[in-house]
């Protein structure tokens, strides 16, 4: 029984046996501590590493935050949705663990193959629908007698809500969630073979005073093309690249608006300190620059271009002729 998901009937039978004395809780604990051999079920193959399951958990933690924001705005009441667990189990085991009558939304995720199943506790679904219709959000469980109007309202509500799945998965793959089916009886759904491994993301959901679970069942066939992208190495690498690109773009923006001091040097001349001390207004200093020779244009006191002096719109100007090259640059 260790590691298995019990159905509601099995849980009730176990509690009943404990209460009637047919089974002793202390003996169960003793057996559990003494048991050293771990049973391995070959039909329950683990096809995802812990690292990949953690990546899926991070994706759906973001999805839970998006759902919290969406439902809080739509239902106008306190809404809290968090990831409770992420496990990989056979599809048959997942179907046995959910109620016999519940709210089931089947989504396609093109371009990925296959479909995913979103199971919503009826109390939660009815509470959401009641709030959207102006009620207080009281929970109910009459899923076996849904009217056509209630079915349409619920399917539309969850179809719009799960558009947030596109944003949550955007770092891994671009998907387009499409609601393809709405059902209340899990026995009528056979998306994959009973032994197919699925990842089940369970979301704790609180709508006002009503609480329940939303379970997202993702078959292996859906995730198979993107499994390499679920590794921590891929996430760290992609985030580092994205961060570096953003930093480069930000630096380029700031550089483009930086102010620079540009000067055009008309020439040079060497004089003695004595001559410098005797300079007065009207004196002329002879430069070593020929009038037909290009001027050196400096940017922040660094020689960068050759140019020639002139006028433009009745103002002094300098025209760029060529790039300034040092001796080693000329040799290259």
TrEMBL record:
InterPro entries: CheC-like_sf, Flag_FliM, FliN-like_C, SpoA-like_sf. It comes from Litchfieldia salsa. Coiled coil: none annotated. Its main location: other. Residues 254-322 form the Flagellar motor switch protein FliN-like C-terminal domain. GO terms for cellular component: bacterial-type flagellum basal body; plasma membrane. This is Flagellar motor switch protein FliM. SUPFAM superfamilies: CheC-like, Surface presentation of antigens (SPOA). Belongs to the FliM family. It is a peripheral membrane protein. GO terms for biological process: bacterial-type flagellum-dependent swarming motility; positive chemotaxis. CDD domains: FliM (cd17908). Pfam families: FliM, FliMN_C. NCBIfam families: fliM_switch. It comes from the Bacteria. Keywords: Bacterial flagellum, Cell membrane, Cell projection, Chemotaxis, Cilium, Flagellar rotation, Flagellum, Membrane. It is found in: Bacterial flagellum basal body; Cell membrane. PANTHER family: FLAGELLAR MOTOR SWITCH PROTEIN FLIM (PTHR30034), YOP PROTEINS TRANSLOCATION PROTEIN Q (PTHR30034:SF6). GO terms for molecular function: cytoskeletal motor activity.
